[in-house]
Amino acid sequence: MSRPRYDDTRSAGSSREVPFIHGESTVERHNRRATAAASMADTLYDHLKDMGWELRVTNHGSHYIMTKGKNTAEWWPRTAKLVINKKWKGGIHCHDIHQVLGVIKTRVKK
Q1: How far apart, in whole angstroms, are the C-alpha atoms of residue 27 and residue 34?
Q2: Is residue 14 in a domain?
Q3: Please, are residues 104 and 85 in contact by the beta-carbon 8 Å criterion?
Q4: Hey, how many other C-beta atoms are within 10 angstroms of the C-beta on 91?
Q5: Is residue 10 part of a domain?
Q6: How many structural domains comprise the chain?
Q7: What single DSSP character describes residue 88?
Q8: What is the DSSP code (8-state) at residue 61?
Q9: pLDDT tens-digit series, residues 7-55
Q10: Packing angle between helix 26-39 and helix 41-50, nearest 10 degrees?
């Protein structure tokens, strides 16, 4: 049995790092996002560490889990889904690590 699918309720906007390309297939776009995230994982780790967060990357780079105290942010780069504190119905569409960091800085309680 599959899990319910929750659409994102908002978006972090257009990405400069992984912009939308007209005519690109969904598979190509998702692979490009995953590749970009993997290439920037060390940068994400460093920024999060400076903010007091920890980062774990699981499922062969498909799932990024960021934690600080009781706060959790989970990001799936391929689909650009970011979920804060398990609020599945309030997903935020984030295409790159800078958008993820921006959301964490502005929307996660300290």
Answers
A1: 11
A2: no
A3: no
A4: 21
A5: no
A6: 1
A7: G
A8: G
A9: 777 888 899 999 999 999 999 999 999 999 999 999 999 999 999 999 9
A10: 50
